[in-house]
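Thread: quick sanity check before group meeting

JM: Hey all, I'm pulling together slides for Thursday and realized we never actually wrote out the predicted structure for the chain we discussed last week. Dropping the sequence here so it's in one place. If anyone has concerns about the input, flag it before I start.
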Amino acid sequence: MLRSPRALVLSAAACAAAALLAPAPSFAAGYGDVTGKVVLDGKAPDLEPRVEKGAAVKDAEVCADQPVPNFSLVVGEKGGIANVFLYPAMPIRDIKPELKDAPQEPVVFDQKGCVFKPHAVIVRTGQPLELYNSDPVAHNVRFTSFGNPGINVTVPAGAAPGGGKGVEVEFNRAQRVPIPALCDFHPWMKANWLIVDHPYAALTDAEGNFTIEGLPAGKHRFTVWHESAGFLDQALTVEVKADGTTELGELKYKLAAFKNLK
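JM (edit): ok, ran it. Output follows.
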């Protein structure tokens, strides 16, 4: 039986629509994890606190009750550097299927003792970021990024996680580098947020350790970034093994690289 031209057009359109709705095929020859440690090659500097105990600052009864640490370079007992961001230098399109969707569990960002906690944050596009304030004084959070609505909100005193009424925000556009979040009420308060549209970014912990899970097997280049250095490396090349863990060992950087220490 002959089919009319209109039926053929409708059939072709239906096939095209089905192709668009079908899951994207995976071309990776497996997936693997990467671990490593970012280390200071040399002696850690002795940095002065941002705020001394008893200093005459705004809301001193809270903000100067204890010294406010200097987070511009945090080095662990064995030389590991905290708060280092590692993320792909080029987009990775072949994302492991179970990691494609952004987590719906929110990232919690608090203000306690006139300090942002945590000091460094990775949040994915479409993932909630909840702003809180555990202090008995008001704070604001100001953050500006390309392609996303600006944030400049006051978070009321006592709006603590788990009970207080925080402020929820989301982002729809990834950024190339981490961007500072600031409090205008207390100018020493600063954190760094990296907005990504993939699951392959990591932050070093207090001892400099990091893990990136579920990378497609093969060769990838990574950016290594720290607030007091900017780009520590923009071409860290990693050969990811399928179905296993690729251990990078120690990535060492000299103190001279951290040229923006304050």
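AS: nice. The chain is about 10% helix and 35% strand. Residues 26 and 94 are 6 Å apart (CA to CA).
JM: adding both to the slides.
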